[in-house]
Amino acid sequence: MPDLPRCRQPSSPSDVEELVIRPLHSGDIYASFQFRTLWETDFMKGNKVSHYRLFPKSLGQVISKFSVRELHISFTQGYWRTMQWGQPFLPSPPGAELWVWFQDTVTDVDGMWKELTNVLSGIFCASLNFIDSTNTVQPSASFKPLGIGNVTDHRFLRYATLPREIVCTENLTPWKKLLPCGSKAGLAILLKSEKLFHSSFHSQAVHIRPVCQDQDCKTTSWELRQTLNVIFDLHTSGQGKREWSLFKMFSRTLTEACPLASSSKVYIDITDDPQGDQFELTPATPLLSQAVVMGDRRTFSVYDLTQQITFGTMRSLNLLIRWKSSEGHMLRPLLHAERYVAGYGLQTGEIHTLMYNNHPYRSFPVLLLDSVPWYLRLYIHTLTVTSKGKENTPSYIHYQPSKDRVRPHLLEMLVQLPPNSVTEVTVQFERALLKWTEYTPDPNHGFYVGSSVISSLVPSIVAMDTNSSQERPLFSNFFPCKEESSYFVRIYTEPLLVNLPTPDFSMPYNVICLTCTVVAVGYGSLYNLLTRSFQIEEPSPGLAKRIANIIRKMRGVPPL
Length: 560
Known about the structure:
This protein is α+β, with helices and mostly antiparallel strands. It has helices spanning 57-65, 82-85, 109-123, 169-177, 193-196, 246-250, 506-531, 543-555, and strands at residues 15-23, 29-39, 68-77, 95-102, 136-137, 157-162, 201-212, 220-232, 243-245, 263-269, 279-282, 288-293, 296-304, 320-323, 335-342, 348-357, 364-372, 376-387, 390-391, 396-400, 409-417, 421-431, 447-449, 453-459, 486-492, 496-498. 15% of the residues lie in helices and 34% in strands. The strands form five sheets. The chain has an eleven-stranded mixed β-sheet, with helices on one face. The termini are far apart.
């Protein structure tokens, strides 16, 4: 199955921070932050932990208490537009995503998973406590471990998404506090919330996995990798010209590296403009670096923040990218996918998943994972897979049916994508009628269905670097592999928004209003009649008589 081949990680400095900036042909800018912290301990062998060093103590206690082997969590606002921006360094679906590998010593995985989600909900100030059995699946082939170890028992794997999770400042603040220097120094001073959230796409993630300390992997350590990806849109930023700088993007400039970081660098991707004909980079740097990223050899201008000469006499670094020409085009990604809901009415529907293989002459297999909520009852006998108008029979299918209010559907398939083709996967479903207490406060908005996950080993344009002992940038070694001819890719489709049969929730309000009106009018009138006291009132005298009595009173004569 085309999942990730596990590789060993070389020994490396304990704390590294990197910023990669990629100018896009549309005039947008892609900025990717990566921070790595190593914790040289191995409590999986029973060693007692007494010193966390630069590793956050809150996360160290979590992985120790809950016997976590790997933990991957992401919070994303917006959808990554692959055809417009290319492939991201680290993909993530809209909303919140969490997948965890537990150690094989755990006996009650579901109970441990529930406690872990509640703890992470408090650490990251998110709604992860809403993760339960109705949105948790146990994949059988996808999401292999990214660290060391040959774990193949998927009973210890749990995966869940919250596609409606909203990412805001309260999620960014605890994420920044996990950094060794916080947001006080280094690249983290650029992480200004009002600028980051005023963007087309924003994603922050935390990845924890065991890695090797040396080439022979005699000792291991824990790697904490924090990533933040953001797309600044040319139009939403209010700029009238194609010009970007650190100050315009983040309202701040770089003044120093993190004192605790052994490496602090800024990479500017100049692969599409090696001669400087399309954009101008200021200040210029003589340091250049090449790296194989996602099957392509990229060239970067490098700014080393640990060198004082980088900041110049002003002791401030404000990189400026000014476009000279809008010409040029972006190479289409070899693999991307789309998904949508078809049909009419509120009884049945159909889910369509489109997977595009843009390679001109090579086919490759992909592993598709779909998790569908229980209230969309899939008709699995209607599942069809077609490529170029012909039936495409999957070589592997794993389907776990749902149980109402207990667990979702789980569908995994291994499909071969022909070259230069579009493969369509369709399945019909029936909408369930929920209990009135199960609807959201805004039921007419619809119900979200999480993104499909597609994993594959995509053919590489250039030979991949398989030397794991060589030190490489962080953005190029998260998905290492041992094959020179292909590289690992994981992509996500759009989340779905599905309408369910919804009762008229205004009727109870109307009934209450009508009932209260009848009770107020009927009972109020009867109560008024029963409690009112009646008195006989003499008729008032006429005007002439009142005037006569006034005159008689002035004369001292008794009134009439």
